[in-house]
Amino acid sequence: MFLSSLKSAQGIFGSPFSLNVDAGLKNFAQVFAGYPFARQYLNSLLTLIISVPVTMLLAATAGYAFARMRFPGRDVAFVMTLTAMMVPAELVAIPQFIAFKNLHLTNTLAPIILLQIFSATGALSVFLMRQHFITLPRELEEAGRIDGLGTLGVFRYIMLPLSRPVLATVAIFAVLNSWNDYFNPLIYLNDEAKMTLPLALQRFTDPLGGTYWNLTLAASVLVALPVLLAFLMAQRTFIESLAASGTKG
Q1: How far is residue 63's CA from residue 66's CA, in Å, rounded to a whole number?
Q2: Is the pLDDT of residue 75 over 70?
Q3: I need a labelling partner for 112 at 20 to 30 A (CA). Which of 12, 70, 119, 238 fits?
Q4: Rounded to 5 degrees, what are φ and ψ at 213?
């Protein structure tokens, strides 16, 4: 993909492993010059910047409540949360669209952000956080309470610092879900300037409907690079937290 992004449209259909990069960086320049790709990139970043921290916060607080606090209907609420992972997004797409249309939120980023937070990825994040909090010794909480901390203090100063590996995993799942979401933007976004990157990748077409593969591949490199770098930086934490959540609790 990277080699082809440096080739002209004609050069791509030669040998796929040829090092004859005849276009150089021209494709990347044209992606930004001829299309609203910068604005679409900003839209995806804005969706990610809002949805990922909120998902992490809600997953951590809900996971802690399900793991450590007793309240009426706790087990039923947890089962209902897990059920969200089993319901296909296509099944609830129509009622969700009607609801957002009645709220006059279509063709905005609001539905995209909200559906990223309250999605199967959000439910999975709650599950991962709950499984992690169950494995932590209760003596840590008791020590905090002896020192005068309340429930929020124990959660903020003891539980969260011990949950960084799992929070990193939740963040990676949330980033991937937000960055790669194609289904929801396809339903709710009509204005090209408001589209996110997955939709933007299909817009590099000629007047006859053919695909400019050189521009599409150049844009694909720009889309894939941030997530790839983020995963490479956090892969050790990601693997360790998944192993821990699968062998404990």
Answers
A1: 5
A2: yes
A3: 238
A4: -70, -30
Mean pLDDT score of the chain:
86
Q: Which residues pair with 205 in a beta bridge?
A: 211
Q: How many CA atoms lie within 13 A of 74 on its CB side?
A: 12
Report the largest interatomic distance among the alpha carbons of the chain, rounded to a whole angstrom.
72
Q: Residue by residue, what is the 3-state secondary structure of the chain?
A: CHHHHCCCHHHHCCCCCCCCCCCCCHHHHHHHHHCCHHHHHHHHHHHHHHHHHHHHHHHHHHHHHHHHCCCCCHHHHHHHHHHCCCCCHHHHHHHHHHHHHHCCCCCCCHHHHHHHHCCHHHHHHHHHHHHHHHHCCHHHHHHHHHCCCCHHHHHHHHHCHHHHHHHHHHHHHHHHHHHHCCHHHHHHCCCHHHCCHHHHCCCCECCCCCECHHHHHHHHHHHHHHHHHHHHHHHHHHHHHHHHHHHCC
pLDDT tens digits, 97-113: 999 999 999 999 999 99
Q: Are 132 and 66 in contact (CB under 8 A)?
A: no
Note the pLDDT of residue 168: 86
In this predicted model, what pLDDT tens digit does every residue of 171-223 receive, in sequence order?
888 998 999 999 999 999 998 889 999 999 888 877 777 788 888 999 999 99
Please check whether residue 39 is in contact with residue 57, taking contact to mean a CB–CB distance below 8 angstroms.
no
What token pair was written down for 20? Answer: 């004859």
